[in-house]
């Protein structure tokens, strides 16, 4: 067998890798794409080189993948939870074994730093391990009825589920969606973002190696057209989507045609509120964690930073000092803490937001410019210096819209009541954060913020045991935590008569 790209990772460095293997996966193997004429180049963000070609799946291929998933589902759904758990635990073990190679390939395709990618891969196997633990606990209820009759409920899978992923956490999203799906007895067909096609197929290989039936986790490549085929397919029971609000709305609309269940993880413009009684150093660290992970391309980022007026000077001084010190450059080097944005278009879009902020009256305290590393191989990369904007107002575009880049907007506030009202004045509601030493205030603010998550005295930690998802236009349904079992299963009621039928007729 030819050496896989993953096996070449130990010696790989930025600018050296080309992926030529097939990136579709169903019926237990990688599948050659049919329509090479529609291929699109995929770039390595740190260099701007072509990493591979993404060749979208058409209707026949989507149909084949779904049929293959359906076959696997019929077998997998009949296993006991503990039997499914065994396969999933083995998959988690294999990911742990290959974590460094998977993380490296993720960096080459996504541009984030290796330090972060390793965390992403760890969260991926932890998620699979967590749901493996829950697989054996799925159970129904027994309900006694008059005359010895009784009913019981069974928690059953939905069938073939579709996962549609974004490019910011390619491998982790595939794990977050497949782990609860598989634990409940479903099969999944996953479509990664066309910009990050290379690691989901590795997860498919790992599930197979772990003993999953052929077809249990399939990967189809493609963009909007392939996504549309998946959302319209009559044999699909559920779509779990991560991405932008406009696409999420389309997914919901398409899924409604055949009444498919939907989970939507959409964007955000989350508020981070810093009170003057906070522990300032932690608040500063929290603000950096809330804004600069994955070059700021994180849906739950706390990009509207509200700081109580009295501490604004100290806060800004410290935040700017630390932002300027973020090591930016080759994402595969251990010391790097910020890599390249996903694409040239994304870089230009983010720089455009900074220009617009300036024209609307914001002050750039640092960054916000294209960054050209000294290493010649990175000259074509999509780097920008992380940016802190001061003198922002709630009506500015940079404060209202999701930028999806390393841009923090800072605004003063005076009172708790005022800041909570301003924080909630958005159509989004994914996350929020508060820094204060006053515990009553912390819990009161958490209660009053309209968001799916509120971090108290920290930001952007996402343990797999904890539910994650949005309020308002940030979506619905949850990922992670016990509750997600409910989004990948359905309840059947079985009513049992022990006596004679009392017929009215
Ligand atoms: N909140 C989040 O987690 C994310 C937000 N975004 C935001 O969205 C912007 C655009 O990024 P995109 O990757 O283009 O996001 P997108 O929402 O268009 O794409 C997300 C996924 O949906 C698929 N898709 C696109 N059109 C579809 C359709 N009609 N039917 C089914 N699937 C479809 C894409 O191929 C991709 O796999 C970013 O600049 C960012 O602001 C992007 C990614 C993640």
UniProtKB/TrEMBL annotation:
Catalytic residues as annotated in Swiss-Prot or TrEMBL: 265
Pathway note: Amine and polyamine biosynthesis; carnitine biosynthesis
Cited Pfam families: Aldedh
Keyword Cytoplasm belongs to the record: yes
Keyword Cell wall biogenesis/degradation (UniProt): no
Reactions the enzyme catalyzes: an aldehyde + NAD(+) + H2O = a carboxylate + NADH + 2 H(+); 4-(trimethylamino)butanal + NAD(+) + H2O = 4-(trimethylamino)butanoate + NADH + 2 H(+)
The organism's place on the tree of life at top rank: Eukaryota
Keywords from the UniProt entry: Cytoplasm, NAD, Oxidoreductase
Any one GO molecular function term: 4-trimethylammoniobutyraldehyde dehydrogenase activity
Subcellular location: Cytoplasm, Cytosol
Database matches in PANTHER family: ALDEHYDE DEHYDROGENASE-RELATED
Subunit structure: Homotetramer.
Protein purpose: Converts gamma-trimethylaminobutyraldehyde into gamma-butyrobetaine with high efficiency (in vitro). Can catalyze the irreversible oxidation of a broad range of aldehydes to the corresponding acids in an NAD-dependent reaction, but with low efficiency.
NCBIfam families associated with the record: PRK13252.1
Family under the similarity heading: Belongs to the aldehyde dehydrogenase family.
Name of the protein in its database record: Aldehyde dehydrogenase family 9 member A1
Organism (species): Solea senegalensis (Senegalese sole)
Lineage: Eukaryota, Metazoa, Chordata, Craniata, Vertebrata
């Amino acid at each position: 067998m030819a050496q896989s790209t993953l096996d070449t990772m130990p010696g790989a460095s930025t600018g050296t890798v080309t992926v030529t293997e097939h990136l579709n996966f169903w019926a237990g193997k990688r599948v050659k794409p049919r329509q090479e004429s529609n291929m699109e180049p995929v770039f390595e963000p740190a260099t701007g080189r072509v990493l591979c070609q993404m060749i979208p799946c058409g209707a026949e291929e989507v149909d084949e993948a779904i049929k293959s998933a359906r076959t696997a589902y019929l077998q997998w759904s009949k296993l006991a939870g503990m039997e499914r758990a065994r396969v999933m635990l083995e998959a988690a073990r294999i990911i742990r074994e290959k974590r460094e190679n998977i993380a490296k390939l993720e960096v080459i395709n996504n541009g984030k730093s290796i330090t972060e990618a390793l965390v992403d891969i760890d969260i991926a196997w932890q998620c699979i391990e967590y749901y493996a633990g829950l697989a054996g606990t799925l159970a129904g209820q027994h309900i006694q009825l008059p005359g010895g009759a009784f009913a019981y409920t069974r928690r059953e899978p939905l069938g073939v589920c579709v996962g549609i992923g974004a490019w910011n956490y390619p491998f982790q999203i595939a794990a977050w969606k497949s782990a609860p799906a598989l634990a409940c007895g479903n099969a999944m067909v996953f479509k990664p973002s066309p910009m990050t096609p290379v690691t989901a197929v590795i997860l498919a290989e790992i599930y197979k190696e772990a003993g999953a039936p052929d077809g249990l986790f399939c990967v189809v490549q493609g963009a909007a057209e392939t996504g549309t085929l998946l959302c319209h397919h009559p044999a699909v029971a559920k779509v779990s989507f991560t991405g932008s609000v406009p696409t999420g709305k389309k997914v919901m609309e398409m899924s409604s045609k055949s009444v498919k269940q939907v989970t939507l993880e959409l964007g955000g413009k989350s508020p981070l509120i810093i009170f003057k009684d906070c522990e300032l150093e932690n608040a500063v660290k929290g603000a950096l964690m809330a804004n600069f992970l994955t070059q700021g391309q994180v849906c739950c980022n706390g990009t509207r930073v509200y700081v109580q007026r009295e501490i604004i000077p100290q806060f800004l001084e410290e935040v700017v000092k630390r932002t300027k010190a973020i090591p930016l450059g080759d994402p595969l080097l251990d010391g790097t803490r910020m890599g390249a944005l996903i694409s040239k278009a994304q870089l230009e879009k983010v720089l455009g937001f900074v220009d617009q902020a300036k024209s609307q009256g914001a002050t750039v305290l640092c960054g916000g410019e294209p960054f050209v590393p000294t290493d010649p191989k990175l000259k074509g990369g999509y780097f920008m210096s992380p940016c802190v904007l001061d003198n922002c107002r709630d009506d500015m575009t940079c404060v209202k819209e999701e930028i999806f880049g390393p841009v923090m907007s800072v605004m003063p506030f005076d009172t708790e009541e005022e800041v909570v009202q301003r924080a909630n004045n958005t159509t989004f509601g994914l996350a929020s954060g508060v820094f204060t030493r006053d515990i009553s205030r912390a819990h009161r603010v958490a209660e009053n913020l309209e968001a799916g998550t509120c971090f108290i005295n920290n930001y952007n930690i996402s343990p797999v045991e904890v539910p994650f998802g949005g309020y308002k236009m940030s979506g619905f349904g949850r990922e992670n935590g016990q509750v997600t079992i409910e989004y990948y299963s359905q309840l059947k009621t079985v009513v049992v008569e022990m006596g004679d039928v009392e017929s009215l007729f």
